[in-house]
Amino acid sequence: MKAHPWINKPFSVKLTRAAIIDRLNEKRSEKTNHMSKEDDKNYRGGDMKELVRQASASQLELYKFNDMVDHDIEVLPGTIWEELNMFNEDLFEGKLTLDFNQDKQYMTIEMSDPESGELDFLVKAKFFALNNTEEESYEGEPPRFRLRLVKKRGDL
After folding, report:
1. Could you report the per-residue pLDDT of 63-94, keeping only the tens digit for each?
2. What is the architecture of the domain spanning 49-154?
3. Whole-structure pTM over 0.70, yes or no?
4. C-alpha–C-alpha distance, residues 100 and 107, integer Å
5. What is the spatial distance between Cα 83 and Cα 120, in angstroms, rounded to a whole number?
6. Residue 40, exposed/middle/buried by CB under 10 A (0-12, 13-18, 19+)?
């Protein structure tokens, strides 16, 4: 048994550990890529398509793209809502107050000073459809939205 090739093979714990970690990272990234491309996601608050405003080309042309406040995205408002909530709870210690108005089609992000209770800032987030969001009409092209952040009060 001492002459078996597995017993006589040189062994390095560091190299074996590095190889296992590399394989684990590859599998995690494959899983993340697969999950991020799935169309049927389960959102805690829904996909929030009701926040998307249908805008004609002339309406979009009326307000020129501003790279400071406008962001073209390919995710649904529900994803933005989830990410903002995760950021607020995990990294910002719950200092932000997030709300949405389904009737007027916008989200609000606000932060108040804990000592004085005064409002530090209030930002509205509006979503505009850049292409038709009906699944059967865009033939494989993902829905695109323009996220416009509008400062209402305070300094950013």
Report:
1. 777 778 888 888 889 888 999 999 999 888 88
2. 2-Layer Sandwich (3.30)
3. no
4. 4
5. 21
6. exposed
